[in-house]
Amino acid sequence: MSKKQIYTSFDKAIEDLSSNTSIMIGGFGVQGGQPTNLMIALRDLNLKNLTLIGNVAGISMITGYGWKNSDKDNIIDQSIFFQKNQVKKIICSFPIPSQRNPMSEIEKAWVNNEAEVEIIPQGTLAEKIRAGGSGIPAFYTKTGVGTIIEKNKETKIIDGEKYLLEYALKADVAFIKAHLSDDKGNLIYKGTSRAFNPIMAPAAKLTIVEVDKIVPSEDIDSERIGTPGIYVDRIVSVNNELS
Amino acid sequence: MNYPEKLTKEDIAYRASIELPENSYVNLGIGLPSLCAKYLEPKKNIIFQAENGILGFNELSKENEQNENLIDAGGQFLNYVPGISYFDSADSFAMIRGGHIDVTVLGGLQVSENGDLANWMIKSRGIGSIGGAMDLVTGAREVIVTMEHITKDNKFKILKNCDFPLTGVNCVNKIITDIAVIEVREEGMFIVELAKDWSLEQVQSLTEPKLIPSKIIKDYVTR
Question: A70 partner at 20 to 30 Å CA-CA among A134, A196, B161, B191?
Answer without folding.
Answer: A196
